[in-house]
Amino acid sequence: MSEPGVEQELALVWSERLQIGHPIIDRQHKQLFDLYNQLVNAFYEGTGQQQIYQVVTDLVTYTQHHFRDEERLMAKGGYPELKGHRQQHQELIQQVSSFVADIDESAPVLTYEVLSFVKCWLLEHILEQDMKIKAWLG
């Protein structure tokens, strides 16, 4: 079992400061937080590898869906830094997909460090990159 508070330390909590003001994107960001928190719960509850694999797979699938929607809205709004933003999305998908492949091969890769990486990436990406697109989403 984990130390007290570690689960809360890894959990993502939605707040108004994370809203970019577009209903679709904000709803999808909240859903990403929910999926990520399911992964944290599965990790700390010691659920089976198959359940963790399913939650990670759901997270990757939904993230890809979200990135497509976000990139489509950025293109429609004429966001000038779309190429770089898209590259960041692709890098995360590649990284997380490698985690999924490792889990599928039953390697013990879902660690505190992996969860921490995903949490930090999501928060930093929303606060630093997605906030830049607010004006371009209309």
What would your notes on this structure say?
The protein is mostly helical. It has helices at 6-10, 23-45, 49-77, 82-104, 112-129, 134-137. Helix 2 (23-45) packs antiparallel against helix 3 (49-77), helix 2 (23-45) packs antiparallel against helix 5 (112-129) and helix 3 (49-77) packs antiparallel against helix 4. The radius of gyration is 15 Å and the shape is globular.
Count of the domains: 1
The biggest beta sheet is recorded as: none
Q: Can you give the mean pLDDT?
A: 85
Helix content: over 70%
Topology:
Layout: H1 6-10, H2 23-45, H3 49-77, H4 82-104, H5 112-129, H6 134-137
Helix pairs in contact: 2-3, 2-5, 3-4, 4-5
Key structural traits:
single chain; 138 residues; Four Helix Bundle (Hemerythrin (Met), subunit A); 6 helices; 74% helix
Summary?
By secondary structure, the chain is mainly alpha-helical.
